[in-house]
Specification:
14% strand; three-stranded antiparallel sheet; 3 domains; Alpha-Beta Plaits
């Protein structure tokens, strides 16, 4: 297939169809497109039945991250097996032009798919572990006590030096 102003695009014989479809709005697109011109969602081959339309509603939300492109694509494929479409995007602030596949990636899904995606990631032991609120409270208490101890120690040292100086 020839793209005007570009090079030829190889089409696999294993492709389900010769066109792409938006799983969110259903708009048909030619094979040289990657995102829907109507809603901006990533396109899939027309007739690709794995994607559940219920999981395509809402804005994109980050549900997971990979340390590199390959790890993020693994997570993306696991989500797709559950019918959840996703997008892999380079994490903001980590632009690594010399190593195009290097650097952390974010995996984003539509808002309607967030609970199912997080549940699937938890079951696969790929979701970030959330800490209990009491752990945060204990950490804050420990930090406060350490700061108070350091300040009290500094004040004691200053007082002792003041006493030791001749008047």
């Amino acid at each position: 297939m020839f793209v005007p102003g570009g090079s030829q695009i190889a089409v696999s014989r294993k492709s389900p169809s010769n066109s792409l479809r938006c799983p969110r709005c259903g708009t048909e697109h030619p094979l040289d497109e990657r995102f829907c011109s109507e809603c901006g969602f990533p396109l899939v081959y027309a007739g690709y039945e794995k994607i559940d339309p219920e999981y395509t509603r809402g804005d994109l939300v980050r549900v997971a991250g990979g340390r590199n492109q390959a790890e993020a694509e693994l997570i993306q494929n696991l989500l797709l097996e559950e019918g959840i479409p996703s997008i892999v995007r380079r994490t903001a602030g980590f632009d690594v032009p010399d190593y195009l596949a290097g650097g952390p990636r974010d995996v984003l899904v539509a808002e309607s798919a967030v609970p199912a995606a997080r549940q699937m990631l938890l079951e696969a032991d790929l979701a970030p572990q959330e800490r209990a609120p009491e752990d945060d409270a204990r950490g804050l208490l420990k930090t406060t006590l350490v700061v108070l101890g350091v300040v009290a120690g500094a004040m004691l040292l200053v007082w002792l030096l003041w006493l030791a100086l001749p008047s």
